[in-house]
Design brief:
The complex is a heterodimer of chains A (324) and B (70). Chain A has 324 residues and is of the alpha/beta class. Chain A is built from 8 helices and 5 strands, in the order H-H-H-E-H-E-H-E-H-E-E-H-H. A 5-stranded mixed sheet of chain A has the order 3-2-1-4-5, with helices on both faces. Chain B has 70 residues and is α+β, with helices and mostly antiparallel strands. Chain B has 3 helices and 3 strands. Chain B has a 3-stranded antiparallel sheet with strand order 2-1-3, with no helix packed on it. The chains are: A alpha/beta (324), B alpha+beta (70). At the A-B interface, strand 3, helix 6 and helix 8 of A face helix 2, strand 1 and strand 2 of B. Strand 3 of chain A pairs antiparallel with strand 1 of chain B.
Chain lengths: 324, 70
């Protein structure tokens, strides 16, 4: 025993002078404190790896829980989003969708989420909005943004804050409903001047695929102008409209109601896409945490094994030296 | 197109069609019998915050909450 202690002492003093620690080279670099071990405390410290493993395990638990929450929210909101599609489809049948219409005052309504950790859906809708902005801009044209949700606001503030007209957040505090969205639509109609509203949102297709979509809503005057020039909108005259109102009045009511319905659908679809994207993002991050945990466990076990082997060698060689 | 006579009046009062139809919808909800009535009313909660932007700066946000109709 005394000899072993002596050898250890000798090694500790000699090591820096003679060789650059031949022992440590094959041991893990995670255990630099080994050489400072004093009487009785031997072996490599695995504290660092153990801490790391614990934190990775906790993160994995959190991401798994978030995935579960997103999955249950998704199921609730998916049926609502799919049912709300029936609201705007009659309008498209009646008025048609005219994404290529060329008007002076474009207002781009970007729909995004308030919370992050949901993959790329917010940056997708921001990118599409920027593209649309570029596409429709030109001399004597006015393009404005109306931003729904915190995330798109944070992204658009960087380069086009001059063009933001209105921003709305905290939409999803209560479950989304038509009354709320129609009040939002009402606010947009009252506060923003427009010839065409272009709503940008992520249309939900399945849990893993979201299609950035634009829906165009024309102002009553533009609708009338388009109706006169023929095309799909020209068919409007063939409908018999009850009531003694003038055509422009009917068109104005229709355009307003269309906007609220389309916005309702857009907000629901986007919320649905958000949950789906969050679910898949959290799924992949729990998988990554699992991989990392596996790698760390391997390192940990290997280090432990190495220290045990070294101890055995030391004991055996000590014993044989005494015998010898 | 429920009431022809009312149309000019609500438009003249500065309401949009959306406000008008929401008002009507809320009246219908108020006509429901009790267990359904409170359920229908509690379903339609409004909460969001709006801020107008002037010269690239957001103005103070106004929070609109639990006002199904203005």
């Amino acid at each position: 025993m005394a000899m072993a202690a002596l050898r250890r002492e000798g090694r500790r003093f000699a090591a820096p002078l003679i060789s650059p620690n031949p022992v440590n080279t094959f041991r893990s670099s995670l255990a630099p404190t080994e050489e400072q071990a004093f009487g009785g405390i031997r072996g490599i410290s695995t504290q660092a790896v153990r801490n790391r493993m614990k934190s990775v395990k906790n993160i994995q638990k959190i991401t798994k829980a978030m995935k579960m929450v997103a999955a249950s929210k998704l199921r609730a909101i998916q049926t609502r989003a799919e049912n709300s599609r029936g609201l705007w489809q009659p309008f498209v049948a009646l008025l048609g969708d005219t994404p290529s219409v060329d008007v002076k005052k474009n207002v781009i309504v970007t729909v995004s989420s308030d919370k992050g950790l949901c993959g790329g859906i917010n940056s997708t809708s921001v990118r599409v909005s920027r593209g649309l902005h570029k596409l429709t801009s030109g001399p004597e044209k006015e393009n404005k943004y109306v931003v729904l949700g915190e995330k798109a606001k944070a992204q658009l503030i960087r380069d086009s804050k001059k063009d933001i007209e209105l921003s709305m957040t905290e939409l999803q505090k209560n479950p989304l409903n038509y009354t709320q969205v129609s009040v939002i639509a009402d606010d947009i109609l009252k506060n923003v001047e427009f010839d065409a509203l272009r709503i940008v949102f992520n249309k939900f297709q399945s849990v893993v695929s979201f299609v950035p979509t634009t829906a165009t809503i024309l102002s009553p005057e533009v609708v009338e102008k388009e109706a006169e020039s023929g095309g799909k909108l020209g068919d409007l005259d063939s409908y018999e409209i009850e009531g003694a109102e003038s055509k422009s009045e009917v068109l104005q009511n229709l355009a307003e109601f269309q906007f609220s319905c389309v916005l309702f659908n857009a907000v629901l679809e986007n919320a649905c896409s958000e949950q789906g994207a969050r679910m898949s993002a959290m799924d992949s991050s729990s998988r990554n945490a699992g991989d990392m945990l596996d790698r760390l466990t391997l390192t940990y076990n290997r280090t432990r094994q190495a220290s045990i082997t070294t101890e055995l060698i030391e004991i055996i060689s000590g014993a044989s030296a005494l015998e010898g | 197109m429920a009431s022809n006579a009312a149309v000019p009046f609500w438009r003249a009062a500065g309401m949009t069609y959306i406000t008008y139809s929401n008002l009507c919808a809320n009246m219908v909800r108020n006509c429901l019998k009790e267990p359904h009535r409170s359920e229908a009313l509690s379903r339609e909660k409004v909460h969001f915050s709006v801020s107008k932007w002037v010269d690239g700066k957001p103005q103070k946000p106004t929070i609109r909450t639990d006002t199904p109709e203005e």
